[in-house]
Amino acid sequence: MTTRSSQHDTFRLERHYPAAPSRVFQAFADPAAKDRWFGSPDGTTRQKGKSFDFREGGRETAVTVFADGTEYGYFATYTDIVPGERLVYTYEMTMNGARISVSVATVEFAAAPGGGTDFAITEQGVYLDGLDDVTKRRGGTEYLLEALAKTLTE
To answer: Do 88 and 60 meet the contact criterion of CB atoms below 8 Å apart?
Structure first.
C-alpha cells in the first residue's frame, strides 16, 4: 500500500543573463530555442510525446526517457504571458506515469541597468507521496538555468 503525503515548499532562483529580455523570453516562447536548453540538452536522454502551444491556456508536454528507462513527464498549462516581462504556468511532473508533484511557476524578465536581463523564477510546489521534494526540483531547475545560460552566449 502506498503511503500518501504532500509537502509544500517554495524556492526562488535569480540570474543575470547577458542578453536582452526579449531574447531570454524567446528562449521560452520559441519551440526551437527551448529545445536547445529544456529537458536534457546534453544528449543522454530522449524525449517523446512532445507538444508546444505557447499561448495563455496553451499546453506544453514532454516525456523525457533516461538511459536507465526511467520516464519523467512534464505537463504544463500557460496561464499568464506578458511578452518580454513575465510568464506564469502550472505544471505537473510524473515519474513512470505516477504524479510526483504539481507546481506554479512565475518567471520574470527585467532589463538590467547595465544591460542584459535580470531573471527570476519562483516556484511554489506540492511534492506528492515522497516521490519528489524541493531539493530535487531546485537542483533540476538550476541545471536548466545553466543550460539556458549556455544557449544565450552561443
So the answer is: no
Q: What is the mean pLDDT of residues 85-104?
A: 97
Dist CA 145 CA 121 (whole Å): 10
Core vs surface per residue 9-19: b (16+ CB within 10 A) or e: eeeeeebebeb
The model's pTM: 0.92
Q: Give the domain ranges of the chain.
A: 8-153
Q: Using one digit for the tens of pLDDT, what is the confidence trace for 7-45?
A: 999 999 999 999 999 999 999 999 999 989 987 656 788
Asked if 103 and 125 count as a contact pair (C-beta separation under 8 A), the reply is yes
Q: How far apart are CA 30 and CA 52, in angstroms?
A: 9
Report the CATH fold assignment for 8-153: Alpha-D-Glucose-1,6-Bisphosphate; Chain A, domain 4 (3.30.530)
